[in-house]
Amino acid sequence: MTQKKILLLAPPAYSLKLYRDINPLPPMGLGYIASIAEQLNHKVRILDCLAEGWETEEEIDETIMRIGLSNHQIKQKIKSFQPDIIGINCQFSRQHKVYQELFSLIKKDNPESIIIAGGAHATVCPQEVLSSPGCDFVVIGEGENSFKELLQSIANNRDYSHIDGLGWKTGTKIKINAKAQWVGELDALPFPAYHLMNLELYFGLPHAHGIRHKKRFMPLVTSRGCPAKCTFCTANKVWGNRYRIRSVDNVIQEMKLLKNTYNIEEIMFEDDNVTANPTRAKELFRQMTKQKLNFTWDTPNGVGIWSVDEEMLDLMKKSGCIKINFPVESGSQKVLSEIIKKPLNLTKVKKLISHCKKINLDFGMFLVVGMPGETLSDIWQSFKFAAKCGVFDPHISVATPYPGSELFENCKKENYFRKPFSFEDLFIRSYLIETKEWDEKKLRTILIKGKLYLYIRRIIAHPSYFFKTLKKAVLSPKRIISFLVGF
Ligand code: B12
For a pocket test of ligand 1, which of 36, 52, 92 has the largest count of ligand atoms closer than 8 A to its C-beta? Predict the structure, then answer.
């Protein structure tokens, strides 16, 4: 097979100017497909334009800036490597314009190169991505097998039209093979190509998908998919409908690589649901302790609470877990079961939180408000539920319909979008929808009232908190400003 030069690229990103609502993280998806390309003996490089250009801001308009390498810098990097194939990670629908920009920019200077898009956005909107000038192929969902077959076809000048989950162009027509096949045995996959990532760029950032506690941290993915089918989530589009796990041995091997080769001290499990198979999860945490891996770790995406019990919490704590997030989403069992469709019984949550307090394991709670069908009194129940559990600062998102989710289809069908849908609006405080129960104003009002209620409940539970915040405010007025902005 002819050896090709392959550049895998994580694009720059648009962010709010007010505060950076994006942060760099070692690009795991590109790491996996880079390893596949290396197995085929291609010459591979990974370029993370966001991390490499983290200090570079370009003003786009009054509210938006672009962070990352400039177009000129990207062109220079491409020129110096002269790749035959360029793979682009198109992860966020909100960033779709950056992807379009890159396709055109790269193709203009390198008309012979082949441009392949993959990632969560390319998965849910393959037609839109492929219709952008410059993009030659789209790989839908889990990328390893389709990418491998595509590289083999390109290198051997063979037909690729049979490849599972592949989108391509013939003249002006777009063809898409639906994604139907998934990796059967995750242990058979190579580890991500960490050696191709400039890891020092990420180390020491205070925020990387949540607060980091140690300088040298890494994301790690031990399973794919989630057995739940929450209506706002699109995880199943990328990973299919079956929850698949890596074996404990296989994960421990990767952990040892991270520890011994890269001196990693902290791990963030980026699984959609690391505990969904409790037997495997418990054994993993047992082995992390037994083998003295000594990682600090957390689960920024939260875990399926239904799969957690007190024994699991003990094992987590013992193996280095620093914080567990409970994605409760709603304090109304009706909303949870009938609207969000999460298989969680709320009666479990309070008991687990009490146990966290007992063993001194920090915890957080995720809530989502503004699901169609939810009433203002349902939303209020969520605030009350959080307070009852002793969680006074839950992370509250406003329901946002992402393409590919059941929620998105429902909002389209029932006309819940309050203005024409635009990819740019896809972030958690964009108030994209309204129903007959509420509109943006009512949601904003109830959010402020809810936060105030939780603040007061906190002071009732811990009167010293009031004096602490007062002291902090006097010592650092900046804090009081950010507190008010938070409101
Ligand atoms: C880590 C993460 C983040 C990090 C990203 C850090 C970074 N700079 O990359 C942070 C915290 C910043 C983040 C932010 C947000 N995120 Co996020 N995030 C994730 C998460 C949990 C993990 C990504 C990951 O590493 N996966 C593991 C790797 C192995 O999978 P992968 O990247 O998908 O790669 C595979 C395939 O996609 C494919 N592939 C990927 N790239 C390529 C390229 C080529 C060429 C090929 C062939 C194949 C290929 O092959 C890979 C191997 O199979 C995913 C959920 C998930 N489980 O994937 C959500 C996810 C990507 N995020 C999502 C969302 C919605 C957001 C936010 C909008 C939420 C918000 N707070 O508003 C913001 C957007 C930020 C912004 N301003 O644009 C959605 C995206 C949906 C969408 N269509 O936009 C996801 C899919 C979650 C979900 N279930 O809905 N996120």
Answer: 92
